[in-house]
Amino acid sequence: MTDTEDGLGFAAEHDAPIPYRQRIRDYYLALGYEKPYRWANYTDVPFTPLKKPLSESTVALITTAAPFQPEKGDQGPGAAYNASAKFYRVYSDATDEIPDLRISHIGYDRKHTTAEDMRTWFPLAALKDAEKSGRIGAVAKRFHGAPTNRSQKTTIEQDCADLLALVREDGADVAIIVAN
After folding, report:
1. Which residues span the domain enclosing 159?
2. Of 3, 35, 144, 179, which sits most exposed with the smallest number of CB within 10 A?
3. What is the DSSP letter of 156?
4. Residue 68 in domain
5. Is residue 1 domain-shared with residue 79, that is, in the same domain?
6. What torsion do the CA atoms of 104, 159, 122, 22 make, to the nearest 10 degrees?
7. What is the distance between the alpha carbons of residues 118 and 130, in angstroms, rounded to a whole number?
8. pLDDT at residue 137 greater than cutoff 90
9. Total structural domains within the chain
């Protein structure tokens, strides 16, 4: 009897999620790190409710996508992992136009995923649609890039502090973080 025949509706055994977390841990060991990657896992996570409805709120977008750097090799959809395209400081750019961003510097699963649809990893166009329809009050005038430096200490102590200051400077009420 198969799982679907018993009425439970389970997926077939071969249809299992990709073991992403274990793959990252194994990858770090293969790179020569002494310890596998440790995922941030907080026991107490603060929650701040919105102070006004989303339809009246300014929304900031934070991404780990990198500005295209033609001198750094292939960075287009389906490109192999390209560490040279990484960036190491928070950056900002205007939201009035869709920028030329890429994600070749990110270790995503290239076997099962493509980077062809930018809206899946940089939803600025969707946010603009939400603004036009009144679902959100406004898209912040700038979006911000968060580096993927593989250092939780640098991310927490430097990058997050820089990003928070920029989001506040933009007058945003809420931020959407899209980690690629």
Report:
1. 54-178
2. 35
3. I
4. yes
5. no
6. 60
7. 17
8. yes
9. 2
> What's at 108, amino acid-wise?
Y
Contacts of 104 (CB under 8 A, 6+ apart): 66, 74, 75, 76, 79, 80, 81, 82, 85, 115
Same domain, 33 and 83: no
Task: Single out the residue of 175, 161, 163, 152 nearest to residue 92, CA to CA.
Answer: 163
pLDDT digits (tens, 9 = 90+) for 64-99: 999 999 999 999 888 988 989 999 999 999 999 999
Does residue 160 belong to any structural domain of this protein? yes
AA letter at 90: V
Residue 180 CB contacts under 8 Å (≥ 6 apart), including other chains: 63, 64, 65, 103, 106, 108, 121
Can you read off the two tokens belonging to residue 79?
A: 């490109």
Q: Is there a domain that residue 49 lies in?
A: no
Q: What is the pTM of this model?
A: 0.81
